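Email to the structure team, subject: Bax inhibitor 1 model.

Hi all, the expression group asked for a predicted structure before they design truncation constructs. Nothing fancy, just the tokens so they can compare against earlier work. One-line instruction: predict Bax inhibitor 1, return tokens.
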Amino acid sequence: MESLFGGLRRRRTTTAGGGFDSLKRLGHISPAVQSHLKHVYLTLCSALAFSALGAYLHIVLNIGGTLTTVGCLAAIAFLISLPPSQDQERNRFALLMSAALLQGASVGPLVDLVLHLDPRILVTAFVGTAIAFGCFSAAAIIAKRREYLYLGGLLSSALSILLWLQFAAAIFGHYYFTFELYFGLLVFLGYMVFDTQEIIERAHHGDMDYIKHALTLFTDFVAVLVRVLVIMLKNAQEKSEEEKKRKKRY
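Reply from the structure team: attached below.
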């Protein structure tokens, strides 16, 4: 009996200890890195707010298009070219917010289309993307150091395949486009995990460029959000077409 109760106690202690393993792993993240992550996520939230403003400006003023896309890429390139010094911090932050604003305006036509079809799609897509981003980022933060960095090679290969799939979708149409959407969604969800761990690892080695790191996570978030919006919009359009066919039959 003593051996039986002893075994049960051991199991309880091991399961209880295993439950706190994820919390203990946070101890590997130094206070400096934790402070850096706070700056990164606060800057990311600011960029998302400016992106929403850009989408709103497109809906009101119809400014989104090729020019805003080119302007966004130019702002990002200029931001990356500037050194991450205190003298350039305000300029780099302003460039990030400008890039986010122009990115939002570029996505504005898609947002406008979604709002005209069903505004609930936009809310559902944003909330779903935010939850996925939070879960994958938390998994990367709680995990052991460098545990997911091996994904870098796989994701870069998958990204090159994605570019070829986009080229094929432009030529062959519907079926390749659908596959490219879901494949791209998986790729950028993987990048959420990889980029978060890479940011933590770079911060451990002294790279505290929170503006550039926020830009990396911002691109991941927008890439996932756009694909979720397109998938949900596509499904809603197919359902509406099916309903119209049923009404015609009856």
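Residues 31-238 form one domain. The two ends are 73 Å apart (CA to CA). Ping us if the truncation boundaries need rechecking.
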